[in-house]
Design a protein that fits this description.
The protein is α+β, with helices and mostly antiparallel strands. It has helices at residues 2-10, 15-22, 24-36, 46-53, 170-186; strands at residues 58-60, 63-69, 74-79, 85-89, 94-95, 113-114, 118-120, 123-126, 140-143, 147-152, 156-161.
Length: 187
């Protein structure tokens, strides 16, 4: 705790964020007690809590935020005029007939299909991901003068975690996102 507080002070992290972040240790100690009847910490949580104490995760209000790289096989595009977003499956992704990813063993069924992305000067063609989370087996074209890519696999992002410490109050979550936006611009 002293090491983390000193590191956070050096980075000008607000003390409230530091304290809220490190309180997750107590949450996991209590979780261990509720499961085993004794005080302690499940070894499986040590790596997770390491993020809290090394600057890899911050609790900002109701939610926790973890700087990370985008690990999804997608490309996201934003429409210049209205801010609409389309997410395309990255190329060479195998999908079942219902748009769900083929199984992890790489088995490809007779009714499966593979995505592709074809980018050119005039735009990009690819297979969109429906807002409900499945890939659509119908390619769409996004014109370069209307759509700009803003996210791809490997880009810097911030993952969001929901600590099991209370209700998912809309206002509290909205406040967390707003504060996190400012926090990560500054820190």
């Amino acid at each position: 705790v002293p090491y983390t507080l000193a590191m956070h002070r050096q980075l000008s992290i607000p003390q409230g964020v530091s304290i809220d972040t490190m309180k997750d240790l107590v949450v996991w100690i209590k979780d261990h007690r509720s499961k085993t009847g004794s005080w302690g910490l499940d070894f499986s949580q040590v790596g997770w809590l390491g993020l809290h104490f090394t600057g890899g995760l911050f609790q900002i209000g109701r939610l926790q935020f973890q700087p990370s790289d985008c690990y999804y096989d997608i490309q996201a595009y934003r429409q210049e005029t209205d801010g609409g977003v389309v997410i395309l499956a990255d190329e060479n992704q195998n999908f079942r007939h219902d748009g769900q990813k083929s199984d992890t063993e790489g088995t490809v069924g007779a009714d499966s299909w593979e995505s592709y992305v074809c980018a050119g000067l005039d735009g990009v063609t690819g297979f969109p991901i429906h807002p409900d989370g499945y890939a659509m087996n119908q390619a769409t074209f996004l014109a370069a003068d209307e759509w700009k890519r803003f996210l791809k696999k490997g880009d810097a992002t911030v993952a969001v975690h929901i600590p099991g410490t209370g209700p998912m109050d809309f206002e509290a979550c909205a406040d967390s996102f707003e504060r996190a936006r400012s926090f990560f611009r500054t820190h």
